[in-house]
Amino acid sequence: MTATTHRLYLDKQHPSAYKALVALSTEVQRIATAAGLDPLLIELLKIRISQINGCAFCLRLHTRDALKKGENPDRIAVLPGWEETGYFSDLDRAALRLSEAVTRVSDGHVSDEDYDAAAAVLSPDQVSAVIWLTTVMNAFNRIAISSRYPVKD
């Protein structure tokens, strides 16, 4: 793979579009909180989505945010294997499962099994909030990855 010395920063190239995405993100954060999703879970969802997409920029950003908000470092460490641990509540698990299914939509869409499992635990507002959070985070991942936002010390 050859390194590209410079890529467009999409937020700078079309700032009005980026500002609209930031505004959408702010609204989605509001509805997620209003739906009763814990702020730590919201950060964990952002981290997990970024792990799946391989977005180092967003991983660093949201890991730092989660730690500042008081997230347990062990939960962050085991997040890729969340199904194998006792660190996550039923609500956390339902949100993580749905978020992963939406992020991996190209692997076979969001199955009825994944959706129904989430809907059995989450309220309709929470299901909607998780899907919106996932949609927005996937957009941010794609912007950061395409632009190759730098991740340095």
Give the secondary structure arrangement, pairings included.
Layout: H1 10-13, H2 15-34, H3 39-53, H4 56-68, H5 73-77, H6 90-103, H7 112-119, H8 124-147
Helix pairs in contact: 2-8, 3-4, 3-6, 3-8, 6-7, 6-8
Please give a structural write-up.
With 153 residues, the protein is mainly α. 67% of the residues lie in helices and 0% in strands. The protein has helices spanning 10-13, 15-34, 39-53, 56-68, 73-77, 90-103, 112-119, 124-147. Helix 2 runs antiparallel to helix 8 (124-147), helix 3 runs antiparallel to helix 4 and helix 6 packs antiparallel against helix 7. The chain starts with 9 loop residues before the first helix and ends in a 6-residue tail after the last helix. The mean pLDDT is 95.
How large a portion of the residues is in β-strands, by DSSP E? Answer: under 5%
Principal-axis shape equals globular
User: Whole-number average pLDDT?
Assistant: 95
Reading the helices and strands in chain order gives HHHHHHHH
Distance between the termini: 23 Å
Assembly type of the shown chains? Answer: single chain
